[in-house]
Amino acid sequence: MTGGTGMDLAAYPDRRSLESVIAMRAGIDVGRVVVTAGADDAIDRICREFLAPGAGITLLDPTFPMFERFAGSCGGRVDRVVWMEGDFPIEAVIESGRNAAVVALVTPNNPTGLSIPSDAIRRVREELPDALLVIDLAYAEFATSDPGAELRDLPNTIVIRTLSKAWGLAGLRVGWTESSPAIALKIRESGGPYPVASVSLDIASKTLLDPSTEAAMWNRVERIRSNRDRMIDWLDRRGIERLPSEGNFVLMNPANARWIADALASAGIAVRTFRESVVDGWIRITIPVDSMDLDRVLDVMDTALRPEAIIFDLDGVIADVSRSYRVAIRTTAEAFGAVVEAGAIESIKAEGDANDDWVLTRLLIERSGIGVDPDAVTEEFQRRYLGEGDRPGLRDRESMLIDSTFLPRLRARMPIGLVTGRPRAEVIWFLDRYELTDRFDAVVAREDAPLKPSPLGIRSAMKAMGVGRAWFVGDTVDDVAAAKTAGLIPIGVSGDDAGDSILFGAGAARVVRPGPAMQRFIEGVTP
After folding, report:
1. Which of 171, 218, 369, 509 has the CA that lies 20 to 30 A from 387?
2. Does domain 218-289 have CATH number 3.40.50.2300?
């Protein structure tokens, strides 16, 4: 059976061919190479084979966490040597290593990006002849120099390599070790006999044998290095603490690190945050290959750190409409014979494209199996909401969710806008009632642009204010969708955990409770 691959997929994988390719490229005997399922598998095998229960492993702090995880699973004792800045702490590593069975060094180190000088590694080897020295070179291609060739010949030493980073083939799960034949035999026997699938082995062999593929890899590395320099320059110009890096990532320590990570996540940009050890509060961000992707990362970070404006939805954010619009929706639907169950309104809003309360009301009625004239629904809704004659409307029940001084304080920092699906007359009524008419630099109402989730209303407000970077604060999935499409950072407002989940699922960077909690968050993270 070939499965369309040209390989016999009924046969077990044979990694010997790839090991021969790796050995040929390195100019070493094939008996010194062991192919593993990524670097993780190599670390797991090393710990199980060379780290007895209670035996020590010396690690840098911070470093790649899989060393500690696999050491712990073997019952090993982890001794840490802190290295966050300055020269490599060679004396401390040697002192720790005197009581260790294994000393593991990652260079460039993950997550700091700091490189260990080769002469320092050789001295560690000389001072600690009985300890197994493990050197993880996962990111070596991105560094100024690759020490693999000189380090793999050191006695009692294992070098770990991978196709995941510079080669950009993490999905293959192909790594390998280079060591002495005796150590290689132990590594080979410490794990399963077929760690890597045939397809991955075949692709890896073809990749390493193809000069054009290697040239493409080095081109990729150079582009990442160039973008790394751009990232570092960007951070330095904004006064954001960071470490020098020779990896394909940068470790930085911005104020409000969690907010930066959340804002990036809302834009689909994953970063690693830390809440432990000496890197508590730091962020590691992988450098994109494409310069346009880096532009996008920097733009999101700029928007998170230095918004030029904040734009608000009205209902559920500034105005409490729980006793007005929500009641108008329910009672209007019931007036046409619909049965409105608890949570039905929230359920429809969670589906999206439900920013028009007149349409939403009609949907409730039609889902009850009742045909209805849309104009009749709107008329009944407005009669209840606005009132008629001497009968007050439901809108008289509306109140402010924010305190009267919040918007003036915020506007002293930057322009603020309002984008709402309310008709303009109803917007003006509410703003006048609470003396908010002059608080906004731009107001976009129902008549001015298509309703959210269309981004056009938000873009119109930004154009009117003359800004390019902004946050949008809203309480529905349509608000979040419109903000994301417009390139803004969306902040959700929700009154309960269920609403939090819905807004986070839609892509909100942060979800806060209405009123004081929202005010504290915005004033706490804006410049």
Report:
1. 369
2. no
